[in-house]
Amino acid sequence: MALKKKPTKLKKTARKLAMGKKTALPVNNGNKGDKFLPYLGFGALFGYFLSKAGATDYDTVINMFRPSDVHIDKTPGGFAFHLESLRLYGVLGVAIAVIALGLFLLENSQKPTLSGKGLDWEPLKWDPDRILGAFIFGTGWALTGACPGTSLAQIGEGKLVAIFTVIGIAAGVWAYPKWKSGSSDKEQVC
Amino acid sequence: MNPNAPPSSFQMFFINLGHTLFSNTWPWWAAGLGIGLTALGLAWFTGKRLGVTGGFVEAISAAAQDSSAKSASPWKLWFIIGIVLGGALANLGHWNWTWLYGRLDAITYGSIFLKSLWLLVGGFLVGFGARWAGGCVSGNSLMGISTGNKMSMLVTVAFLAAGVLVTNIVYSMLRIL
């Protein structure tokens, strides 16, 4: 065992030396060592739940923006709520509440992540310019009934037209920096 | 054993479980809980912030072989590939290819060409706007709001306002047509 471990240690040191200044950066930046399976797995979970939420269904998304048949009936036993059209607001609300509570607990715990390091992200910086982009996004969301996440899940579901949505999204993501040159310094995409 | 006999309650349990896992849509609270726990799981296991637009950025820079951007965060690429798998898994029970797309079929008069064009244009706006806004619904609305970011809250309000406005314009125009 000891013999087996030694060469890897030496290799690591050699790599560190070869990388020079970069050794000061956190290990996370040496992405080659990152395992892909956890990301694939969490991606699959995300797609799975998006699909279970109905967020991948065009009609459900349209119902969220243009609710149909939302009413409350008075019944002998009390009230009957017909709020199915608004279900995606409920999904979003529950998800946000769960994440907010969970992150609060994680940040106040001894071990915020498995590796013991802090969360590897920074908050979106204030820039009112983004609101225009958000309006454009909302327009596209209404037209396609899909956002970047759900369009991918739709392909998995076998919805062939979603391929065009995904191509469109990729084209839009590609075009933005060409159109808005010099934005790279403040570019920040989650 | 009679093959026509109704399934026992023991068998019914697994049949229903199969439908729940691989066919049916879930109640809103259950799906929301799932999405929330997924984001938390990703944060705890890997320290990463859930987001999809970044995956698209990663994918196009990989396609353009832009080596400087390529090294940024390849995990996002794996994450968005996973989303496709997850969508398939959720519908394994009745999985098949389809060109149908809900009420949009009626808007585009059943023409696949028109529908594809519609989605291509809409998709472009989604991608363009998402990068401009600094993230899509997952990055801004889920992760941004839950961390109390004011920019993300404002962006989410704009997402929804534009969505409500455009959907109502489209569908009220169709009534006139």
Topology:
The complex is a heterodimer of chains A (about 190) and B (about 180).
Chain A: H1 2-19, H2 37-53, H3 58-65, E1 71-75, E2 78-82, H4 87-107, H5 130-144, H6 148-157, H7 162-179
Antiparallel strand pairs in A: 1-2
Chain B: H1 9-22, H2 28-46, H3 53-63, H4 67-70, H5 75-90, H6 104-107, H7 112-133, H8 137-146, H9 150-176
Please describe what this structure looks like:
The complex is a heterodimer of chains A (190) and B (177). Chain A has 7 helices and 2 strands. With 190 residues, chain A is mainly α. A two-stranded antiparallel ribbon of chain A has the order 1-2. In chain A, helix 2 packs across helix 6 (148-157) and helix 6 (148-157) runs antiparallel to helix 7. The longest helix of chain A has 21 residues, at 87-107. Chain A is globular and about 60 Å long. In chain A, 41% of the residues are buried. Mean pLDDT of chain A is 83; it is low at 1-33. Chain B has 177 residues and is mainly alpha-helical. Chain B contains 9 helices and no strands. In chain B, helix 3 crosses helix 5 and helix 8 crosses helix 9 (150-176). The longest helix of chain B has 27 residues, at 150-176. Chain B is globular and about 65 Å long. Classes of the chains: A mainly alpha (190), B mainly alpha (177). At the A-B interface, helix 2, helix 3, helix 4, helix 5 and helix 6 of A face helix 2, helix 3, helix 5, helix 7 and helix 8 of B.
